[in-house]
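For this section, I looked closely at the sequence of one protein beside the tokens encoding its backbone, which the following lines show:
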Amino acid sequence: MLKIPYTIYCWMAVIIGFISFTITGLIFWPFFKEKQKQYYALASFFIRLLFTVTGIKVEIHGSEQLPKENIILVSNHQSLIDIFVLMAYFPKQITFFAKKELKNVPILGFNIVQMGHVLVDRAEGRKALKQLDIIKDKLIEGKSIIIFPEGTRSKDGKIGPFKKGAFLLAHDTKKVLIPCYIKGSGKTLPKNKLWITPAKISIHLHAEVKNDSSKAEKKPIAINNMKDETREILLTTQTKVETA
């Protein structure tokens, strides 16, 4: 089957690309004036190159609706490659949040930190609230962040229930919240699978979701309104683009 040699080719390209990026980054790191920004840009270049050599095509729609200021990007989540798709093709530099255990993975943990991403503990209670403060600090610093409100990857492509964290952040920081739907990534690399299929991936961005934080409306109501509206936008987009 062609699927087997293609998958082997893709994973070899990933390994070679990752090693090449790391070596290049280490060579140029002392010369970078804006280290995180330039290291991120270098990573984006290598990811785009990787998609090109593996024949995975990515397109983006709606980028003209993005504001100039930093944002909270809220997206569906079907595959491990979602974050790489956004790093390579989303017009703004984005910060994502990964499990703190990745810090102990050789080279990978180093690269995550150097690009300004955040390693967090998937905790409950007070620890979770403390980590929300860390994310707020990133927004205050002017960083754009990506949050997958389902909290995990979807096995069947269906959009699951949303957790409230992203919408709590939008309410408290008054930052613009942009819904994003990613099509095709789950077909390219499904959850818990190693097989890779050269599917076409597309990113669909929408206008900002209304933030009622400036009104006298009670906080829980405002947060739920944003959460429900965002999920409805993504469900509508899914129906539209998946049946087109």
Summary: The helical segments are 3-28, 35-53, 82-89, 108-114, 125-140, 165-173, 185-188, 219-242. The CA atoms of residues 77 and 153 lie 5 Å apart.
